[in-house]
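Quick illustration, no need to memorize.
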Amino acid sequence: MNRKIAILVLLPLLTACARTGGLASSASLCSNGNSLRIGVDSQLGDVPSEGLPQLSELSVILSKASRCPVTIEPITNDHLGLQGLVRSSWDFAFLGPSLTVLALRDGAGYVPLRSLGKKADSRSAILVNANSPIAGYADLNNKRLGLLPEGSMLGYYLPRYNSYGLRTAVAFGSSFDDLKGMLKAGKVDAIAWDTQATPRPEGTKIAALDPHLLPEAALVMKSDYNSLDYQTMLNQLDGNAFQLPGFLRYAPGSTPRLIAYHHMHKVVRDVTNWDRQAHTKSSDAAPHPSHR
């Protein structure tokens, strides 16, 4: 082929590539033969443990949609989920409301792709024994408070935010059921509580209630994939949403509104800063090893 003619033939193709972001924009999500790591949050509902049929079916669907090998990783609690997000452990993740808030913070490295519904009317509360004099957040001063570990909006960030400035002796439980046992045993005076956790234990009452509902859960993607052809996978999921496990509550074409997360992002940011300052003061107050 004449060189001049070849250039004229290739020019429109090169121009088209430039308009669409070039070859990189359509590169495979697993071009290096890597397996996509997919996180699935147990907070979405009754998520089966690894290897059971629903997760196996999800793995097959995601593998076909992405044209990549897929590894499904159940996220068993919010604290482990937070650690995974900090390490950018997952390429894509189906997250409950708490972890979605943490994943979509500025600088967290994830972007929202699809809504997964939300826990209707799920709010953070303070639960106490029915005969307790505690009747609000201010009454937690000089009391023993049971919280979940860092990572839970309902069990950690919101209770800490609402009790800022108070002197509380904090004890941690691994779940709301664990906190319930601590309250019943008299190990704490009050516990963080999810208003949707049912049934509420007999002989208890809600002493304080945060007015904010949790925002939507979401399917999120590591921002590193922004330049790749993730849209093809997303189109496949949208077109075959009826095949996805029901507990995901996948909403085809529905993208979470980031403005809905702003208050929760402020809560997390403030509590994280307070924790950091408290840790710094504690370190400064501790005697230097050479002076002990």
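Residues 262-285 form the longest helix (24 residues).
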